[in-house]
Amino acid sequence: MAAQLLTKQRKKNTTMGLLIQSMADLQGRNTNTDAAPSKDDSYGRHGSADEALGLFRQMQSSDIRPNQFTFASILPACYDLVSLKELHRIVIASGFQFDVVVGNTLIALYAKCGSIDEARQMFDRIPQRNVVSWNTMIAGYAQNGQIAVAERLFEEMPERNVVSWNTLVTGCSENGQIDEAWKLFQKIPEPNVVSWTAMISAYAKKGYVDNALKLFQKMPERNMISWNAMIAGYAQNGLIEEALELFQKMPGRNLVSWNAMIAGYAQQGDNESALKFFRQMQHRGVKPNSESFTSVLLACAGLTALEQGKEIHGEIIRCGFQSDVFVGSALVNMYGKCGSIKNARCVFDKMNKRDVVSWTAMIEGYAMHGCGKEALALFEEMKQSGTKPNDVTLLGVLSACCHSGLVNEGIEYFNYMSQHYHIEPGMEHYSCMVNLLGRAGQFDEAQNFINKMPIEPGVTVWGSLLGACRIHNNIKLGEQIAEQIFVLEPENSAPYMLLSNMYAEAGRWDDVEKLQKLVKDRKVKKKPGCSWIEVDEQVHAFLVEKKVTCTKTTI
User: Which tens digits make up the pLDDT trace of 308-334?
Assistant: First the structure.
């Protein structure tokens, strides 16, 4: 579940990230290497906020007067609203609050922190706004879901450049207005490679891969970013073979190209290939970044490859990404999934900043290990910290109750999610509650719960109840539930196997034979079981009745 959140965050950032990467050169940055300490800028870009701010304070104590370029370089190191406002006060005290370079940076950062009203106040206070000011404010509105306001501001612009158009095209697509994005794209006076790339990314994110490919093929010119956008589009939509083919054809590759493939494989559950690509990337001399580490850690979690995960953790520390919130969350998730709950908690406690994914990963880790009370205590701590839980967090809490038999607490938190956070339960939440009640042997309550569901119960809900029937050897109810699943998913082998095991445990061998005949007649195929073993820091996979690795005998 936390892995899904990490994947979702990565996908959410891909389109805007590709656009920003493209826009940087075209929009231009007002920098002055003589005026701005380059070390500050380096710290800021690498996200080492504390180090950057510390260096800035040393500069102040040395009586070196900062200028507008110093502030433009150091401001991006602010990772939250508190540090941003602190530095904003210093900007005002230094007399640079009306400088357009500093002002544009503050607009972008306030918008990034979700303080769009303060971003607009900054925009309105700049006496001589330039086109970058307008573009930044439009992007801020779009990033905060206020696309209608962004469009109005776009219409008010005294002058526009291609970046203005590209910003609004991306803003529309990020807010689900793909048709409006396409109409805007067609109106761009002179679309550049960024315009095409933005539209390709928009189509790919929406799942319109064919449309994205047509645009990619029509492009008058392509650059590295265009190729990466198309590869990421394929990978995000599960077309990993097509992504690989394009990856192999592209004239040159960079870190983004490799990251798209690693993330694509991890997203598809092909964790071995994700790990393999990560190592290939390193052997080619390409240094990983936070996205690389996040994706490969998800792969290690999927493989439960603890030793590989520990090795990558060491690389993260050596590369200086241990303070990155996404990497930290991925580490917590990896250690939890690999059975090392103490290491997961150790990483969690050392995180300078935690987001909803970090808390959710740790709660899930406790849930998996049957530490229900610890999970609930952490959830209460999360609420006190001011971090708002989401549907995945609540699913982790319910899972913790389920694995620890905390029935009353589970019912309380299930009601809590809709009453206090206005989160509508999904199928997984209902399945978890049925599992909770069923495991406790409360079959009447479980059935009543299902009957009162506002949505039609799916296979996962019935499957949870069937699993509980096996635990308590309730064959009569189990037969009824299995019939429900047979109708919903005739080719699903799981209910046949569960019911067969229940018959066998009860010594009803005639029923076992009848069920096996039914499986054969309906041509239901059981998915082969898969196991992994980690030897000498290499992961080897085995399938039942099928040899996947040629080193099985050696191992």
Answer: 999 999 999 999 998 899 999 999 999
HEC assignment per residue over 418-455: HHHCCCCCCHHHHHHHHHHHHHCCCHHHHHHHHHCCCC
What torsion, rounded to 10 degrees, do the Cα atoms 533, 538, 544, 548 define?
-170
Integer angstrom CA distances of residue 523 from 388, 494, 514 = 47, 14, 14
**Can you give the pTM of this predicted structure?**
0.78
Query: Which residue in the block uniquely carries the two structure tokens 């609420």?
Result: 383
Q: How far is 240 from 14, CA to CA, in rounded Å?
A: 16
Q: How many other C-beta atoms are found inside a 10 Å radius of the C-beta of residue 27?
A: 19
CB 529 within 8 A of CB 542: no
Q: How many residues does the chain have?
A: 555
**Distance in angstroms between the alpha carbons of the first and the last residue of the chain:** 33
pLDDT for 16 beyond 50: no
CA distances, 288 to each of 94, 243, 302, 320, 370 (Å):
38, 20, 20, 11, 35
Give CA–CA dist 544/450, Å, rounded: 36
Question: Phi, psi (5° rounding) for residue 539?
Answer: -100, 130
**Amino acid (1-letter code) at residue 474:** N
Rounded to whole angstroms, the Cα distance separating 314 from 309 reads: 9
Bridge partner list, 530: 543
